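step=encode ok
step=design start
structure_in=
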């Protein structure tokens, strides 16, 4: 588990990485002197949100699902991808950036759900704790734990939406032949652009 101060550091690092790219076109180098938890290999997602008519709307969300890079490096990469390479949105502009909030989700390693019958999957998923990763051959879809909470999904709907994210039929999970993983996340977010950073969700 990260401390709140370490979470704040990652959110500010993500914001600084985007600012540096907008100002200079360069990729930010992480500080060398960091506590061990920030140098461990962890999966991480960066989510950007923008207020539209008083509501926080998604403006970009990309990450690295598996623990293959040091957390600080993965956070910088995810921040830049969320800002400039999310195919659902045009690249973030300098004018938009001051109005965007940054959220960082640090993931636990995905754990494969072992079931004898696919109909058992929903019983193994806890809304508010688990995120989902679905794999079928080369197709993969991931939804963070907070997505289910924000949209009021039950476990079945969460499975269906993750299958759709993978480009699969929504009932693909019922038919077998796919892998379903759960993971948890520590989620840190700005309450307003460049504002206070709070922890909105823990790992467990």
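sequence_out=
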């Amino acid at each position: 588990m990260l401390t709140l101060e370490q979470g704040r550091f990652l959110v500010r690092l993500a914001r600084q990485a985007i600012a540096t790219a907008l100002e200079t076109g360069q990729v930010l180098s992480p500080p060398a002197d960091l506590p061990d938890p920030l140098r461990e290999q962890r999966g991480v997602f960066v989510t950007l949100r923008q207020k539209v008519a008083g509501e926080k709307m998604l403006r970009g969300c990309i990450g690295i699902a598996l623990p293959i890079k040091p957390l600080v490096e993965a956070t910088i990469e995810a921040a830049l991808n969320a800002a400039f390479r999310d195919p659902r949105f045009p690249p973030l502009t300098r004018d938009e950036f001051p109005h965007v909030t940054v959220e960082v989700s640090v993931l636990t390693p995905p754990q494969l759900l072992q079931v004898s019958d696919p109909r058992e999957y929903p019983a193994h998923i806890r809304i508010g704790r688990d995120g989902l990763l679905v794999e079928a051959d080369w197709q993969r879809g991931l939804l963070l734990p907070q997505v289910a909470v924000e949209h009021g999904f039950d476990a079945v709907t969460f499975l269906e939406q993750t299958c759709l994210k993978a480009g699969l039929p929504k009932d693909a999970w019922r038919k077998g032949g796919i892998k379903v993983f759960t993971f948890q996340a520590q989620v840190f977010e700005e309450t307003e652009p460049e504002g206070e950073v709070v922890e909105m969700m823990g790992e467990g």
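step=design ok
step=annotate ok -> Residues 148 and 158 are 6 Å apart (CA to CA).
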